[in-house]
Design goal:
Length: about 280
Amino acid sequence: MAKIAFLGLGQMGAPMAARLLDADHEVTVWNRTREKAVPLGRRGARIASAPDESIAGDDVAITMLTDRDAVERVVFGNDGLAAALGPRQTLIEMSTIGPDAVRSIAERLPNGVEMVDAPVRGSVQQAADGSLIILAGASDTAFERVRPILKSLGTIHRVGDLGAGAAMKLVANSTIGATMAAFGEALALGEALGLDRSVLLDVLSETPIGTTVKGKRANVESGSYPANFKLALALKDMRLVADAAQRAGRTLRVANGTLDWFETADAEGAGDLDYSAVVATIARP
């Protein structure tokens, strides 16, 4: 079993760290808000007081953080992880930060430290039950080293070398955001044409966006959007998609339209709600 430092205990990070404990790995945890680490401490994790302390003697460090700025602070800031990393240790970056950020971080790590980017598809329930889809970008040697660890968290897809995991996550997220926006627009059109909402939802459940409609129907019908995946995070991801497309010289009109809808919903105060709250923004008369 591996010795693992896990940094970032938000909605996704905490259940992922718990899965590693359940798999009998030796886990040290760190979170900016220490209180979030206490339940894992009760389950046997060691709680570190700073990022650089978390990696002491461990084989692997995993970061699961909100965005690029958070990763930069944790890895390269005061008491940052990078200062404590050494040869034969590996950093697994599982946040959604894009391929450019991944490569930039890798270039600044100490000599001998390998990096794997392994963002995930799935939400809190999948993190808890170990059924995440893991999109891994890594060298052959680094991938083989971390595969037994990642297996505890879900199904692994090796999608290429370093940076490929982060790139594939953006591709996947572009479809998730667009599907939710399509749901909202279909509902808005149907209601504008005088159709009953319940009937609309029944029919949309049998269309190509049916999985999304079925998964978020209760939110839409109740008008309540408890956060499973915050809209503010979906907005961050869509901005990454738009930026990556611009850098690659591609025009993505659907993605740009989706980004506009999420920005509108966020500006109206929906940032802390579930990302399906964008449907309410779109479908509002």
